[in-house]
Amino acid sequence: MNNSGVRDSAREVDAVVVGAGQAGLSSAYHLRRTGFEPERDFVVLDHAPRPGGAWQFRWPSLTYGKVHGMHALPGMELTDADPQRPSSAVIAEYFDAYEHAFDLRVRRPVDVKAVREGDAGRLLVETSDGMWSTRALINATGTWDRPFWPRSPGQETFRGRQLHTAQYPGPQDFAGQRVVVVGGGASGTQHLLEIAPYAAETHWVTRRPPVFREGPFTEDVGREAVALVEERVRRGLPPKSVVSVTGLPLNDAIRQGIADGVLDRLPMFDRITPDGVEWDDGRRVDADVILWATGFRAAIDHLAPLRLREPGGGIRVEGTRVVADPRIHLVGYGPSASTIGANRAGRAAVRDIRRLTADAPRTVTPAGSVGSAGSTVPAGSGE
Description:
alpha/beta
């Protein structure tokens, strides 16, 4: 089909939300509450097979009680969750209930392949379920789909198993094995503490010495960390994680891991061998498994046709709005890449989109009106 035919067949909406994790659902809630009707004025497209965002793919041993800082979605609290249940199950059920309570009508599984320039100032969203023409786009795709694998000399020669945090199956899978965990973030330390009781031996390797943070994570500390991340995206640099700025919390489990020698950090190795890893000073470690707890990158390749990247390698963002194209908002990107940050960013993005589309006639659904699921959108909630 030629471009004209594609445009003619595209379904028109005011906003497309890509992703139905915390950021996407928050954005959809605020669109709904502001008067945008799902399926008529906006759609939510999610590539996952079921509700739950990236949480549905988390490893079974990450129970809800181990989750740090899971903030409720606007308008509906997560209550009475069993801390012993896997977070993947608890949060997936919560997201599912949320989608139904506010009648968000998420379409899944739908893969967004590309976002391109359309006609009359609109964007064309190419998906596995056809084409959408939209006046604005909220990108809430997170990072889970883009695990970062560093390259190391000799990596392809390793005879053991290499896997990433995104593939982590739980600690029992490493019973009796020699495991090298690479990465100085929260996932790396959690993996080590879980694996150590099962493995024959573990080694922790990080590019930089880990920074442990004493004391509580106060609002002031959080604001300072977010400000530093926000400064990077304002300059068009790729965002860093908040934990890279704040350091690792020094809790009882971490202290015990240090005392037991589990969290005895080694500098980054210089090469991988068929049987393990080596350093230039002659040191070597034999390994059956290399577990890369090396983080993720923003899953935004579908935006490439719009050429939004700056010379620094990132997308320059003010608040949630892309500076190079104000029709596009990145929610859950950079400073809003946290559960509470995603909620606030979703609300801010919708305010901008409401201004962008203000010239279009709209029938506003009053706050508190009953949706098809029989529940209400509470007036003032999530503010």
